[in-house]
Specification:
two-stranded antiparallel ribbon, single chain, mainly alpha
Length: 279
């Protein structure tokens, strides 16, 4: 059972929508948690009248809303605005609030494209992959062609999203563009890894044979794959797999089923622990 948290003010019947991360919040604690998550790309758009009305009317926090109105009349910085909310609610520690404030302050100096890339990566981390790719495509459409470093970085990020979704042909295309823009050996190896998964083995070998400039990267990939295979076989997952295979080989169906169900429960519990909300 998770820990109980006493809320400040009321639980709102109507949520406030944090547009930059496309999330509804119903309590001021949820607001504080969300502001901490997206601190590095918060901007002045957060300081709007709608938020103050929600705090006052939906959450019953008239005093906090009044403090924020006073700040807005003085044209405050966004980190000051957020700090007032966080300190009033006390959901985070003072040390955490200082870290959040520093993250907001450093994020303000980001170039607009880098800020949007951070937003896209955050969307991806929340499982909104289509939204993240659309955001990255929007940046690429607006970036000047001469911005090779930034373009390469975005193509590499897109490649990772596609690879995580087992869309290896698209991942190879993205990593290939990232490698050609950046000249990075790492992007080249990623490109070859995705390519190897997306085409037949004979076609991959023929491609490498026709591109001698890729031989070193291909050799590095082969070495890395062999090491990963050894690590897996010698690790916990490999031992568990051998144990299951042994049960099957020896006709121990009941033992196989019991052990498989145990592993499923462990994986389920671990997934829940890793994805549990913090509020």
């Amino acid at each position: 059972m998770g820990r109980s948290i006493l809320t400040t003010g009321r639980i709102a019947e109507k949520p406030y929508r944090i547009r930059i991360i496309d999330r509804n919040v119903y309590t001021v604690e949820e607001l504080c948690y969300s502001l901490a998550q997206c601190a590095s790309f918060l901007d002045e758009d957060l300081m709007d009248h709608e938020l103050l009305v929600w705090l006052e009317e939906s959450c019953g926090l008239a005093e906090l809303a009044a403090q924020l109105r006073s700040l807005l009349r003085g044209r405050c910085a966004v980190e000051d605005f957020v700090s007032v909310i966080l300190l009033y609610v006390g959901y985070q520690s003072v040390a955490e609030i200082e870290r959040i404030r520093a993250s907001i302050s450093s994020g303000k100096g980001m170039e607009p494209f880098l800020r949007r890339l951070t937003e896209a990566k955050f969307a991806a981390s929340r499982g909104h992959i289509t939204q993240a790719i659309e955001l990255m495509d929007g940046i690429l459409a607006e970036l000047p062609e001469l911005e090779r470093e930034m373009r390469g970085r975005i193509w590499a990020e897109k490649g990772r999203l596609y690879a995580d979704g087992f869309r290896y042909a698209e991942a190879a295309d993205c990593y290939g563009k990232a490698w050609r823009l950046s000249g990075s050996r790492q992007n080249c190896v990623r490109y070859l890894a995705a390519l190897q998964f997306s085409i037949p083995e004979e076609a991959y070998a023929e491609y490498i044979g026709g591109h001698p400039e890729l031989e070193d990267a291909a050799a590095q990939l082969t070495k890395a794959v062999a090491q990963a295979d050894r690590d897996w076989k010698n690790g916990t997952a490999g031992r568990q797999n051998r144990r299951l295979a042994g049960y099957l080989k020896n006709g121990q169906a009941k033992s196989f089923d019991n052990y498989a169900q145990q592993r499923i429960r462990e994986l389920r519990d671990q997934f829940r622990a890793d994805n549990a909300p913090s509020f």
